[in-house]
Amino acid sequence: MKRKYNTQIVNTLAKRYDVTTRYIRTCLKGEGNSLLADEIQNEYKRLVGKLNVVLDSLGIDR
User: Fold this and answer.
1) Are 25 and 10 in contact (CB under 8 A)?
2) Cα 10 versus chain centre, distance
3) Where are the domains of the chain?
């Protein structure tokens, strides 16, 4: 099953870490084996959590 990632967050992380969006998705799939990959996964989860809080507070379905 193909997993969908939030495009805005993926693009933001790619700019922040100066890597490609493909590398970000590779890290999120768990295929990256580095400290940076772990950091990217954690940051993605943190940003998605923040986004979900905002959407919930606005009453917007995800």
Assistant:
1) yes
2) 5
3) 7-51
The Cα 40–Cα 25 span in angstroms is: 10
Residue type, 6: N
Residue type, 60: I
CA dist., res. 16 & res. 25, Å (int): 14
Tell me which DSSP letter residue 34 carries.
S
CA dihedral 46, 33, 31, 29 (to 10 degrees): 0
Q: Judge contact between 6 and 43, C-beta under 8 A.
A: no
Calpha distance 45→41 (Å, rounded): 6
pLDDT interval class at 3 (50, 70, 90): confident
Question: Tokens 């100066």 — which residue?
Answer: 18
